[in-house]
Design goal:
The protein has 171 residues and is mostly helical. It has nine helices and no strands. The protein is globular. The termini are far apart.
């Protein structure tokens, strides 16, 4: 996954967003606009190339924490289902798996830390997927899963002690 390919994907998504803006009110796309466009197109994951998925997931991973938390949280169920589908169908592509695990971790990271989301089946399935990769033969996938779980544990620990660790996740 090259920087050039990611920049091409960003440009393509940016062009889509700009084409939907009103004339005279054009602006650079916001993280929330990127999130909305990419999360709606990545939904057809089974019809996409691995390169397209990797570039889109890498962008989503980077912007998820910057996009409107209300929008991101509202898309948790559908987007996490897509991520789980990508992970399931990509067992033979370690690079894609790693990016999908990181994107899943970022999506989990921006959820509220109260019991409302974390007691749902969808959130538990996502955590179970990360836990499954703790025993993977590929060290890079294990490391990615460990990093995502540590990030979540740190966030929840900080929030349980009254310190909102990311400034966005709190209960």
């Amino acid at each position: 996954m090259s920087k050039k390919a990611i920049n091409q994907a960003l440009k393509a998504y940016s062009d889509i967003i700009k084409s939907q803006q009103e004339i005279g009110r054009e602006h650079d796309p916001t993280p929330t606009e990127f999130f909305a466009v990419i999360s709606s197109t990545i939904g057809q994951a089974s019809n996409s190339s691995a390169d397209f998925l990797m570039n889109s997931l890498r962008i989503l991973e980077a912007i998820t924490t910057e996009a409107s938390q209300t929008i991101v949280r509202g898309q948790f169920r559908s987007l996490s289902s897509v991520y789980l589908q990508i992970i399931t169908m990509s067992t033979d592509n370690a690079s894609l798996l790693k990016v999908a695990l990181a994107a899943l971790g970022s999506l989990l990271y921006v959820q509220e830390t109260n019991d409302g989301i974390w007691s749902t089946v969808q959130a538990l399935q996502c955590i179970n997927v990360l836990l499954t990769f703790l025993e993977d033969a590929n060290i890079k996938l294990r490391k990615c899963a460990i990093d995502q779980l540590q990030r979540l544990l740190t966030l929840h620990y900080n929030n349980s002690n009254g310190n909102n660790g990311n400034g966005k996740g709190g209960a």
